[in-house]
Amino acid sequence: MENQHARPAPHPRRSRKHAPPFWQADKPYLHEHNISDARFRLLGYLMAMLGGAINAGGFFAVARYTSHVTGEMSYAADMAYLGEWRLALIAFAGMVFFILGAAHSSWVILWAKRHRFRGGFGFSMWLEAVYLLLFGAVGAIVADWHSGSLPVAAMLLLCFIMGMHNTVMTVLSGGAIRSTHMTGTVTDLGIEISKMLYYHRSDNPKLPHIHTNKPKAKLLAGLLAAFLAGGLIGAWGYHSAGHYFALPVSVVLFVLGSGSVGYDVKLRLKLKLVRRLQQHARGR
User: Fold this and answer.
1) For 8, phi and psi rounded to 5 degrees?
2) Any residues with CB less than 8 A from the CB of 244 and at least 6 apart, and which?
3) Which stretches are tagged as biased composition: Basic residues (predicted)?
4) 3-class DSSP string for 178-202
């Protein structure tokens, strides 16, 4: 006989204390990574800030916003209609190199997973930092030869770098965060704001299938602010240091990637030491 005094099952709304963090609520991204809520937020903010700095500083270097693929495609279409085929091809090539950079970064991450490395994301950041240093070094040398402007090849390299930069956080967050352009960010933020405004209307019922995600909205607003701050820093940095501004940006990327890469290095060194000790013990 069933217990008539058994407690009813708790309502889903009552179990919020045991709900997953906000960055796992909508999508199960990061569920394989040991990263806290605060660290994830900080990483997203820093990557968005770096994206804004590279994008804004790169505009003064190559006279293009290299992360704005939508604008480049519209520009290519406009130039094609006007018969300016060279400009149209350059804009189209920028999009192609952005794709190649994204594919390169994703390949590095997949390669690391295949070889059971946990530092694929950090290693991709390191490669991006190396390419950014190359961009800065070439820019500092070549800019004087071209009256302060860089050739098309440098612009394509920067598009490649921006594709890599956007891919790291996109893969790490399961597509929830884009660190080089804010169109998707402001769209998602607008969706969350609409839910909040709907809930605050007293004449509307609270539909059970609509849930406001305030932590997500705060994250999106923070990403937008970080990208804007990074743009200001990038513009100031380029006008203050020129192409040498790529150096501090690269250093930050190296620091961000050093945690995961360092973990792999320590683990491999530890395994080698254990194997040597085992071989030494067997040789006795």
Assistant:
1) -65, 155
2) 136, 140
3) 8-19
4) CCCCCHHHHHHHHHHHHHHHHHCCC
Separation CA 248–CA 258 (nearest Å)? 15
Report the distance separating Cα 125 and Cα 128, nearest Å: 5
Domain map of the chain by residue range?
Answer: 36-274
Q: How buried is residue 140: exposed, middle or buried, by Cβ count under 10 Å (0-12/13-18/19+)? A: middle
pTM of this structure:
0.79
> Which amino acid makes up residue 266?
K
Q: Helices in the chain by DSSP H: which ranges?
A: 22-25, 37-62, 69-81, 85-114, 120-142, 152-172, 183-199, 214-241, 246-283
Cα separation, 283 vs 79, in Å, equals 73
Is the pLDDT confidence value at 24 over 50? no
* Residue 78 burial (CB count, 10 A): 13
Q: What does the alpha-carbon distance between residue 35 and residue 12 come to, in Å, rounded to a whole number?
A: 26
120 and 112 Cβ atoms separated by less than 8 Å? yes
According to CATH, the topology of domain 36-274 is Growth Hormone; Chain: A; (1.20.1250)
